[in-house]
Design brief:
There is one protein chain. The chain is α+β, with helices and mostly antiparallel strands. The protein has a single domain, classed as Alpha-Beta Complex (Cyclic Phosphodiesterase, Chain: A), CATH 3.90.1140.10. The protein is 31% helix and 33% strand. The protein is built from four helices and ten strands; from the N terminus they run βαββαβββαβαβββ. A hairpin with a 3-residue loop joins strand 9 and strand 10. The chain is globular, with a radius of gyration of 17 Å.
């Protein structure tokens, strides 16, 4: 009897990367935070992105049909501008684990809904939570840093309207960075 081998899997999500002007604005803020806020595993600047849907570990053979389903969604999107919309934390400001900068643009809700429909049509589960557009800046490493982190983090936020010139892309291997 041959051993059963699971198909290769990839940690996957659907996201857009920031164009250089946008990334520069957020990276400047990220570097300011990195210099003043301890106890946080900060995102690498080259990995900043706006996630529309996190898929988790997906069998690699499921990705090409999903990419094909997302192409019309991506093609329908014109370049748009993101507005920085404050800073926040998940699960809450009182117990920050993930630090983020919010972003907004009129196109985002419709784009997120189109991505969700394409994923559903390919057999992926619907997202239970509402879409909250944000860029993850870092993850608080331990409980002892949480209350102190928010004091520093909430004190300032980036002030710009960076432009986005990318359309949604599909996958990533978190160990290798966004692709």
């Amino acid at each position: 009897m041959l051993p059963i081998v699971d198909p290769p899997r990839m940690r996957s999500f659907i996201a857009i990367r920031l164009a250089d002007p946008a990334r520069a604005t957020v990276v400047a803020y990220l570097e300011q935070l990195r210099a003043t806020v301890g106890g946080v595993a900060w995102a690498r600047p080259e990995n900043l992105h706006l996630t529309f849907k996190f898929l988790g570990d997906v069998a690699c053979e499921r990705l090409p049909p999903l990419v094909a389903a997302l192409r019309p969604v991506a093609a329908s999107v014109q370049p748009f501008t993101l507005r920085v919309a404050g800073v926040g934390a998940f699960p809450s400001l009182a117990r920050p684990r993930v630090l983020w900068v919010g972003v907004a643009a009129p196109v985002l809700p419709a784009l997120a809904a189109a991505v969700e429909r394409a994923c559903r049509d390919q057999g992926f589960a619907l997202e239970a939570r509402a879409f909250r557009p944000h860029l993850t800046l870092g993850r608080v490493r331990s409980e002892r840093h949480r209350s102190r982190t928010w004091c520093f983090f909430g004190a300032s936020s980036p002030r710009a309207e960076p432009g986005i010139r990318r359309s949604p892309r599909c996958h990533s291997d978190a160990r290798k960075g966004f692709s």
